[in-house]
Design goal:
It contains 13 helices and 13 strands. By secondary structure, the protein is an alpha/beta fold. Helix 13 links the parallel strand 11 and strand 12.
Length: 451
C-alpha cells in the first residue's frame, strides 16, 4: 500500500480496492475493478456470502460463477468479513443498503455502522467513496464526522477560497446506477457521477472510476452527486405514478392504456414511455423519493409532487387486490376462501431480486383478505424471511395444466419472459393480468381481466 497517494495515484494500475457490501451493487463493482487489473477485496458481514465468493460460487442469477472463479483463481478478488483488512486498502467503496423504516423515513444504520467500522482502520491518503443512495448531505453530515474522529481530516471545500485545503484522506460520493438484468447497459457502459468533499477528493474518485466506466461526470460536491441519483429515480417514480393513475381512468373509460402508451411512444420527440404495474419495486424507485421528502422538511419545504406520486404508487397493490376481488365476485366467488396463484414474486421480469417487490405486498393483502395463496417464480424456489415480510413457509408450485386449473384465479404480478402465457390462459379458470403480459394471447380472452 502506497504511503504517498496523491489524487493522481488513483488513476494508476494495481490499486487495492475494498468493496463493502457484496450484493447486487457491490459484487458487480468488485468484479469490474478486477477486470481492469486491480486487486479487490469484498467485505461483508454475511459469512455465507464470503464463503461462497471465496469458493467461486455466485448467489446472484445474472453474475456467472465463472466470472468470480476467473478473478479468485487469478488472485485479483477475494472476500472477507474481517474489517481490520480495510487498513490494507488504497480505496474503500461503500455499497450497503439504505432502506426505509416502518414510518417511511430513511434508515441509515447500515451506512452509519459501516463508517464506524472504517474509522479505526482509516489510513492517511486513503480514498473513501459512498455509493449507497441517500439524501443530499449524508456524506458530509453523517459519514465525514465519523471518519474524522480518529484525528485525520478531510476539510469541506466551500468553493470560494480559490485554494485547495490540505487533506489527510479523500472522501467522495458516487451514486450506484446498477440495473440488475439490463442486457443493454452494464456497469461499464453507464457514466459515473462523482462529487468530492473537496477538489482533491473529487479528482481521486474520478481517476479511479474512469478506469472502469465509459465516462465520468464530475459535479461540484457530494451533495450535488447525492441529489443527481434522487432526481433520476424521482423522475421515474412521478412518471410511473402518472401512468398508474391514467391506467385506472382508462379502465373506467373502456380504454386500453397500453395501446395508448405504445401509440404515444411513436412520437420521435417530447415523449418517453413509462408503463403501469401492480406497484413499485426494486432498491431505488420505491425508496429514494422518501429520502428527499424527509430531508426537505429540514428546509420547511413540502415536496407535494413527490408525496402525491408516492401515494398513487403505494395504492397500486390495493387496486390490484380489489380487481381480483371484483373478478371473483363476477364469477359468484368470494375472495375469502378462494384459491389464488400469484405468478412472479421478483420485482421485475427475469431477475432474482425481491427487494421492495410489489408481489410481497400482494401476498400480504390477499392473505389478509382470506385467500388461500400459492405462488410460482422460476427464480425463487422458496421464499425466506425478509425485513418486512415473512413468507418462509411458502415454496414455488409447479406450473402444469392440472395445477393451473385447480385455482380460482391466477394473478400475473411479474411478467417473466419464460412463462407460456397461452398455456397459462388456456389452463386457468380466470387470469387477472397486472402487467399486460397476455396481450398476444388469442384464445380464451374471456378469461382475462386487465387491471
Amino acid at each position: 500500500m502506497s504511503a504517498e497517494r496523491k489524487p493522481e495515484f488513483f488513476a494508476g494500475k494495481g490499486i487495492n480496492v475494498g468493496i463493502i457490501g457484496c450484493g447486487y451493487v457491490g459484487l458487480p463493482l468488485a468484479l469490474r475493478f478486477a477486470d481492469v487489473g486491480h486487486h479487490v477485496t469484498g467485505f461483508d458481514l454475511d459469512q455465507t456470502k464470503v464463503d461462497k465468493l471465496n469458493a467461486s460460487q455466485s448467489y446472484i442469477q445474472h453474475i456467472p460463477a465463472e466470472k468470480i472463479r476467473e478473478h479468485v483463481q487469478g488472485k485479483r478478488f477475494s472476500a472477507t468479513s474481517d474489517f481490520a483488512k480495510l487498513r490494507d486498502m488504497d480505496a474503500v467503496l461503500i455499497c450497503v443498503p439504505t432502506p426505509l423504516d416502518e414510518r417511511r423515513e430513511p434508515d441509515l444504520s447500515y451506512v452509519e455502522n459501516t463508517a464506524i467500522a472504517i474509522a479505526p482502520n482509516l489510513q492517511r491518503n486513503q480514498l473513501i467513496v459512498l455509493e449507497s443512495t441517500t439524501y443530499p448531505g449524508t456524506t458530509e453530515e453523517l459519514v465525514l464526522p465519523i471518519l474524522q474522529k480518529g484525528g485525520l481530516r478531510c476539510p469541506i471545500d466551500p468553493g470560494t477560497s480559490g485554494k485547495e485545503p490540505a487533506t489527510d484522506f479523500y472522501l467522495a460520493f458516487s451514486p450506484e446506477r446498477e440495473d440488475p438484468g439490463n442486457k443493454n447497459y452494464g456497469l461499464a457502459q453507464i457514466p459515473k457521477v462523482v462529487g468530492g468533499i473537496n477538489p482533491q477528493s473529487g479528482r481521486a474518485a474520478a481517476g479511479l472510476y474512469a478506469q472502469i466506466v465509459s465516462k465520468v461526470v464530475p459535479v461540484s460536491s457530494t451533495r450535488a452527486a447525492e441529489m443527481v441519483k434522487l432526481l433520476e429515480n424521482i423522475f421515474r417514480c412521478v412518471n410511473i405514478a402518472l401512468v398508474n393513475e391514467l391506467k385506472q381512468l382508462s379502465l373506467r373509460m373502456g380504454l386500453d392504456i397500453w395501446e395508448v402508451i405504445d401509440s404515444a411512444a411513436t412520437k420521435p420527440f417530447g415523449f418517453m414511455p413509462f408503463y403501469p404495474g401492480p406497484g413499485l419495486g426494486g432498491h431505488c424507485i420505491p425508496v429514494d423519493p422518501y429520502y428527499l421528502s424527509w430531508k426537505a422538511r429540514e428546509y420547511d419545504f413540502a415536496t407535494r409532487f413527490i408525496e402525491l406520486a408516492g401515494e398513487i404508487n403505494t395504492e397500486m397493490p390495493y387496486h390490484v387486490v380489489n380487481a381480483v376481488a371484483s373478478a371473483l365476485n363476477e364469477r359468484q366467488k368470494s375472495i375469502k376462501g378462494s384459491r389464488i396463484l400469484l405468478l412472479g414474486v421478483a420485482y421485475k421480469k427475469d431477475v432474482d431480486d425481491l427487494r421492495e417487490s410489489p408481489s410481497l405486498k400482494l401476498l400480504e393483502l390477499l392473505t389478509e383478505r382470506g385467500a388461500v395463496l400459492d405462488y410460482n417464480d422460476p427464480y425463487f424456489p422458496a421464499l425466506h424471511k425478509m425485513r418486512h415480510y415473512d413468507f418462509s413457509n411458502k415454496k414455488s408450485v409447479e406450473l402444469n395444466p392440472k395445477t393451473l386449473g385447480s385455482y380460482d384465479c391466477v394473478l400475473i404480478a411479474t411478467d417473466h419472459t419464460q412463462y407460456d402465457y397461452d398455456a397459462i390462459v388456456r389452463d386457468s379458470k380466470l387470469v387477472v393480468d397486472s402487467r399486460n403480459a397476455t396481450r398476444r394471447v388469442k384464445q380464451g380472452r374471456e378469461k382475462i381481466v386487465a387491471c
